Amino acid sequence: MKILPATPDHHAAIAAIRTDVVRQTTAIFHTNEWTAPQVADLIAARRAAGRDLWVVVDAVGTVLGFATYDRFRGGDGYDHTMEHSIFLTPQARGQGAGRALMQVLEAQAAAAGVHVMVAAIDADNHAARQFHTALGYAETGRMPQVGRKFGRWLDLVLMQKIMDDQPAD
């Protein structure tokens, strides 16, 4: 496995992975699917802000997943708090791809001065919660019935990791 910044060659695969997650799971509460041009626009916007979208590829270059991060909320008081997204193909789960992606993502975020990284997870997604706990994230909030998908209400768990020990100015 290799972790790389996404290139145009990866756009269609990234869109396909996210579309599968949207259609099949509650890992993301959104129902909008991405196209390759939308992925290109997202990557351009993230790069302009100093953030990359990373992919994990196998030995032949097949995209197995991706991860990215962006602002947690608007307003300059949140400049040092980011929320990440990570999505893997079913065959990549449990193989170390997610951990490898997160190590690169967190290293980039820490180098950019990110103080807190947030994960927003479906409360029923026990595997994602365990994954984040293993990476040092702690549950900091639970929001009942804030999402709706597949005809049911979804609870959101917020987890966070403090990335540095920098004091506030």
TrEMBL record:
Protein name: N-acetyltransferase family protein
Organism: Meridianimarinicoccus marinus
Superkingdom assignment: Bacteria
Keywords: Acyltransferase, Transferase
Location of the N-acetyltransferase domain: 1-164
